[in-house]
């Protein structure tokens, strides 16, 4: 007969094994767990989040493919740099709008959705880094459920062999941010 104490110990060991397996999967397969790419889609607007030169380059690529007719740059700090990259890559100035006040993904979503609602936008493509795409998409969907959001990330440094020392840390930190956004804002991680 199994005592209550042995039963609790077995459950604890089983939970620890499951947790260890999840951690191993997260470390080995971050591209599969963190990346959301909806593939070729059309939308009203492209929303490019601040954070790296590859993001506005990807947004310009999607704009030139006629995936959307307008681009909104969201994020404090590199908004003007991202605008310059968009212009350099062929996006006309009259289709670019800026939301230069947000400092976090949460604020990107809240502030940009205000603009989208004011303009009666029904669909938007979110452009960010591959490892940030799940949290960004979940955040926008959480705060703007009436708008259809798609994810078309940049795949800069997608292969582990391309990672530089601090880059890998950024990728794995994203798991903590997913949990943090779930706890703090109620944004589901998956």
Q: Can you describe this structure?
A:
- With 190 residues, the protein is of the alpha/beta class.
- It has 2 domains: 1-31; 35-185, HUPs (Rossmann fold).
- It contains 7 helices and 5 strands; from the N terminus they run ααβαβαβαβαβα.
- Helix 3 (54-64) crosses helix 4 (79-88) and helix 5 (105-118) packs across helix 6.
- It is elongated, with a radius of gyration of 19 Å.
Low-confidence stretches: none
H-E order: HHEHEHEHEHEH
Count the beta strands: 5
CATH class of the largest domain: Alpha Beta
Question: Could you say which structural class the secondary elements and strand pairing correspond to?
Answer: alpha/beta
Secondary-structure map:
Blueprint: H1 4-28, H2 30-34, E1 45-49, H3 54-64, E2 71-74, H4 79-88, E3 96-99, H5 105-118, E4 123-127, H6 133-143, E5 148-151, H7 165-185
Parallel strand pairs: 1-2, 1-4, 2-3, 4-5
Helix pairs in contact: 3-4, 5-6
List keywords for this structure.
alpha/beta; single chain; 12% strand; 2 domains; 7 helices; Rossmann fold
In short:
The protein folds into two domains: 1-31; 35-185, HUPs (Rossmann fold, 3-Layer(aba) Sandwich). With 190 residues, it is of the alpha/beta class. It is 51% helix and 12% strand.
């Amino acid at each position: 007969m199994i005592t209550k104490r042995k039963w609790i110990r077995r459950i604890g060991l089983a939970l620890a094994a499951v947790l260890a397996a999840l951690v191993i999967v997260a470390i080995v397969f971050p591209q599969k767990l963190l990346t959301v790419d909806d593939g070729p889609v059309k939308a009203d607007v492209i929303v490019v989040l601040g954070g790296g030169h590859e993001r506005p380059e990807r947004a310009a690529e999607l704009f030139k493919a006629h995936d959307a007719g307008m681009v909104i740059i969201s994020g404090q700090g590199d908004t003007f740099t991202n605008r310059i990259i968009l212009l350099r890559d062929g996006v006309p100035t009259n289709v670019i709008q800026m939301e230069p006040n947000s400092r976090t993904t949460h604020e990107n979503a809240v502030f940009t959705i205000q603009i989208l609602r004011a303009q009666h936008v029904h669909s938007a493509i979110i452009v960010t880094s591959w490892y940030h795409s799940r949290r960004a998409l979940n955040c926008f969907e959480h705060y703007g459920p009436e708008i259809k959001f798609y994810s078309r990330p940049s795949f800069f440094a997608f292969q582990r062999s391309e990672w530089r020392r601090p880059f890998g840390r950024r990728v794995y930190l994203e798991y903590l941010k997913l949990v943090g956004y779930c706890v703090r804002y109620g944004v589901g991680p998956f």
